[in-house]
Amino acid sequence: MQPSTSVEQAEISREQQYVDRVYARLAAMVESASAVRREGRERGLLDYTGQIKEEDYRSLFERDVLVDHAVRRLAVLDAQREGLVFGRLDHVGGEVRYVGRIGVRDAEHEPLVLDWRAPAAAVFYQATAVDPQGVVRRRVLRSQGQRVVGVEDDLLDAENAPADLHVVGDGALMAALTSARSGRMRDIVATIQREQDQVIRAPAPGVTLISGGPGTGKTVVALHRAAYLLYTERRRIQGGGVLVVGPSAVFMSYIERVLPSLGEHEATLRSVGEVVDGVVADRSDPFPCAVVKGSARMRQVLSRAARSAVPGAPEELRLYAAGRRLELGARELTAIRTDVLRRGARRNRARPEAVRALLGALWKQAGGAAGTDGAGAGGRPMSRGEFDQDVRERPAFTEFMDAWWPNVTPAEVLGWLADRDRLARVARGVLRPDEVDLLAASWSGPAGAPAPAAVPSSTARGRIGYSVEDVPLLDELDALLGEPVRPVVPRDPFDEDDGVQEVVTSYDRERSWSRGEQAQQYDGYAHVLVDEAQDLSPMQWRMLGRRGRHASWTIVGDPAQSSWPDVAEAEAARDAALGVRTRRTFHLDTNYRNSAEIFDLAAEVISTALPDVRLPRAVRETGHPPTHLTTSSDGRPDAVRAAVGELLDAVAGNVGVVVAGPRADEAARWLAELGDDAAARVVVTTGLASKGLEYDGVVVVEPAEIAAESPVGVRTLYVVLTRATQRLVTVGADGGWRAGPTTPDGTTGPAAATDRPA
Ligand SMILES: Nc1ncnc2c1ncn2[C@@H]1O[C@H](COP(=O)(O)OP(=O)(O)OP(=O)(O)O)[C@@H](O)[C@H]1O
């Protein structure tokens, strides 16, 4: 029976009463956590003034732990103002349970709300009409702030439903899928589907691989999984942290709110160009150059570069020791360097070894003990120890070492390779001459590394200039070169400052929490989540592998959307990074983003290029098929403006305008005339940069150009055509791209879009 509005209103008011009770309890919890923090602060201020006795340190430490806990708790509670309670389960027999973003108990410790990640809440996501698992009705509460504005019910077990049980609403999932997109990904905690829940709650150890076509929720599910793991394995995971890696800075800001909205603040989010500390790269190299830099062959090139002579290094060592003139020439020096580094030694770590090898060669040249007769103490032959000390103390030797074996940074070594001849030498037999040309040009051009001599250190390179593809190369070099051996400075065990600082760290932690600085760089993450993994090059896999040596992994990807050409090479590198860990594979099959009409067009385009591709099923029909505007190049700006204007009227959320890379600036100029209101809702982006993102309306400019941008451009076009939730317009010289002109066998093609002149 169709429920009346008054029934729905009555249900909403009843739910509101319960929700009010929960918020009141939350306020009390916030107050008590604040009180602990306040008290801790007062004690901490005492510490700074030094008015504290030694025996108080212990209680202060305990206090510090309490304060730290209170601060973390407050951060979680503060994030839960919006839609804290979102679900209700009515069980057979009348038991009612509420599900929310965090668990809340009343003053008597009775549960008011179950945390969505708790085992008891799993049934909220798992129960279906076929398998109700003791649930009669599942209800989703829609809220604005703390106000309940709607309820959406699923009746799962009609036979066991009491007579007065009301069922209202059209279904929470459809309401969520048709809502406007704001440019930030939202959590889906109220509407997680059963097959998604299985992925989220999969056991932590090993590697969880999530595949699926566009819009199947891979990203959002992986993020909920991270929140789930932080909840169920908090101790293990908080120790090392969670690293979330995605394709670009724009993508990272698109997803950055999901974990905090689920009460989790402790993941480190990095785009693939920012994984290495101190380097921020957001520019990609042109495709042919990117392919060479990403290839596993670079490993050998870099390994040779890391072992090569420093540019301008002295070619001979001459000094006076043991009463005679000693000299090592270029050939001997090269042999010593090669020998020291041959056994996999890391260059910066191996300096003491290089010194020993030089001393050995000089001792031999001096003729050993016999040859140094008369130069030792009391006119005796020198001992080896005396000889070494004599040489080491000579300024000529120290100066030589500094020039011949300086500590070098990854940035410097990469800078050396801007010299084409040098690069050709280290790449001999590994890279082709045209590949050497590409790399040398990329590192010596205006945006590339400066000439070798001008690269004193990585900081001097600044935080700009490197491409995304350079970052794994720097990281590889870092691993090859190693940290310099530093003299150990003994610490004063009675240093009081250190003690006091330790006691008051809750302030530091609190300050860094409020500044959002809790994300630190770990090398040994406990869990690594990689999104858009199909695009990672072998060198990028090596970089990530170093950060998750002991981690469990969640890896998300769709081969049909891949922009990396050599899939087998990347898979081999991925397998090497993951080692022997157990793999668990999930495939998601429902496209929740696109309308069926939009996905049909995208599906036809990709099927032409990849006939065996496994396509998801789009669940929503809008009655709005994509349209194609045919235009000449002169008419293009007007046509794009018209299409954007039309979409701004048709949809409530954002409109994306996707162009081939070289057209990005031009397209931004076309749209500048649209005014401020429009500018706030329109985003111009490129095919590659649109990965992982979504907009309510999308205008694709010259799809054929996007498909022609690289040998795998048709896969990028597939990505682009699957970004829209509601409306899609393509604008171009013709509709030939629908026939798949860049595809291997694309002589005929689909014509799903409605053609109309611009
Ligand atoms: N259970 C769900 N409830 C509500 N919305 C959902 C659900 N599952 C997915 N979505 C929505 O579908 C859209 C697509 O999700 P997401 O971006 O995670 O997909 P994806 O598989 O990573 O896509 P792509 O591979 O194309 O980048 C998002 O808006 C997401 O919020």
TrEMBL record:
Residue ranges of every copy of the UvrD-like helicase ATP-binding domain listed in the record: 191-595
Biased composition, class Low complexity, residue ranges: 739-758
Cross-referenced InterPro entries: DNA_helicase_UvrD/REP (IPR000212), P-loop_NTPase (IPR027417), UvrD-like_ATP-bd (IPR014016), UvrD-like_helicase_C (IPR027785)
Top-rank taxon, per record: Bacteria
Any one GO CC term of the record: cytosol
Keywords assigned: ATP-binding, Helicase, Hydrolase, Nucleotide-binding
Region Disordered: start-end pairs: 735-758
Protein name: UvrD-like helicase ATP-binding domain-containing protein
Organism name: Actinopolymorpha rutila
